[in-house]
Amino acid sequence: MSLSKDKNWWRQAVVYQIYPRSFKDSNGDGLGDIKGITSKIDYLSSLSLDAVWLSPFYPSALVDGGYDVDDYRDVDPKLGSLADFDEMLSKLHAAGIRIFVDIVPNHSSNLHLWFKEAIAAEPGSAARNRYIFRDGKGASGELPPTDWPSHFAPSAWTHESKMGGKHNQWYCHLFAPEQPDWNWDNREIEEDFLKTLKFWADRGVDGFRIDVAHAMKKDLSEPLQSQPRYASHKELELANGTNVLFDRNEVHEVYKEWRKLFEQYDPPRVAVAEANVSAEGAVKYASTAELGQCFNFELLDANFIANEFKLIIDRALVNAKKAGSSTTWCLNNHDQMRPATKFGLLPTVDRVNWRNSNGTSSPLDEKLGTQSAVAGSMLIMALPGCTYIYQGEELGLHEVMDIPESEIQDPQYLRNHKIDKGRDGCRVPLPWTKTGSSFGFGDGGSHLPQPKHFGDYSIEVESADPSSPLSIFRKALALRKTLIAPEDMTWHETGDAQVLHFSRPNGWNCITNFGRNHYNFDGAGEVIHSSGPLGKAGDLPPATTVWLRSSL
Ligand code: GLC
């Protein structure tokens, strides 16, 4: 299969997120790797994907699952080599699947050559100016320079002595201390990232997912301003590009320059921003003059409630139009609780507290959760725009709630007073087979413990069951390719507040029953597929989506 030269291939693509450490281990060291991915291209093909997005696979001590990058232009030897990467890329392309790589521009790791140089260098030196080093406050500089917070630690400043520095300065990190922030006011950094983008684009990479894309540029004018907590989406909007730490006007200049680089390729390289801003704030990032797309994360927090979905869908479509882009739909990713679990909890349950109670503070309706998640996925697949699937979502995998504290890897837990158990529960390696060592993930165990029930959700078991989430996904994704329609949709009145019905311009209809009652769709069209068994004569059971073909 050859890749089309269509410049707009990405607008309604299906992109599958691979978390490389947890996908497939080819050498039995307990960590997933590049050759593991290459060995499973048949599986990826069976999902009728347009592209895969690989979370970071660069050399890293894995303090933050690889989002602590030692070298942006190499492959972690634990995961393979550049030659392995090239082989994977050419085999993916031969199978008609494109590839996005993750770019982490806000911070490197403390093991990056330039950070090692910075720590060894004098204050005020060019090496230190690649990062954000400052003198501390207090009589002898014993206090951090500002009150800025970090996602994974109380303060965004760490004294250099913690990293072996011999001077009395502090450096800035919005995430873990092992993730020092780059100084984006330094042209050398801007140029180095252009070099990184070019490095991967020249190798044939088709697109980029940009990590924390609303960060990078900070107000570094002296004296540094106070910013004791992160601004809300509303506050960022009101700040209009002038917040001290996020969503600054200058970051858009960076993306305009990246766009010029993307346009030098045929077809142009594409990008999607991970920007924690409001749906309206995302418009600039998604504009065709900048990255071209921005993740629409609103469904990540949604409950399985019709009106919540509808409001989010309407807002996202309006904003995508404003940006001249198409929107992205996702129910989860490597930072989020698995949707089968989210939707199996009562909407009133605080998900973080529930996770911290190891899932014991209130009951989980596992079956309802799985059904709702598959119904939700079939709904988003039918919408105009891109569908993102996070590995394991197609199996209806649940969050793993009982990872022993001693095995937790996530800095969100380890570096933050162990308040929030963090994100490891959705990063547990995939089960490929019903039995065997780590359920077929690899021969050497698994870097995060897999629960006993994982075998029942394995690709082997689900492939053999026509009613499994995997079989439903496979059929839906294959059909989606044939049903794809112009980027438009129309809502239809259902007379039931818990049922959403929309159609696409080619007569492709999607009806989802979010409620607890049955809904009758008799006469709305010919059934093409459903996320679960249907009743007789147009009966749509609760937590089910049906696709229909109607005459125009
Ligand atoms: C993004 C990633 C997350 C990571 C953080 C810091 O939000 O998705 O996994 O911890 O950036 O790089």
TrEMBL record:
Among SUPFAM superfamilies, the record links this protein to: (Trans)glycosidases
Cite the InterPro entries for this sequence: GH (IPR017853), GH13_cat_dom (IPR006047), O16G_dom_2 (IPR045857)
Domain Glycosyl hydrolase family 13 catalytic per the UniProt entry, residue ranges? 17-427
Q: Which GO terms describe its biological process?
A: maltose catabolic process; sucrose catabolic process
Parts of the chain that traverse the membrane: none
Q: Cite a single GO MF annotation.
A: glucan 1,4-alpha-maltotriohydrolase activity
The organism's place on the tree of life at top rank: Bacteria
Q: Which family does it belong to?
A: Belongs to the glycosyl hydrolase 13 family.
Family matches, as PANTHER family: ALPHA-AMYLASE FAMILY MEMBER, NEUTRAL AND BASIC AMINO ACID TRANSPORT PROTEIN RBAT
Q: What is this protein called?
A: Alpha-glucosidase
Lineage start: Bacteria, Bacillati, Actinomycetota, Actinomycetes, Candidatus Nanopelagicales
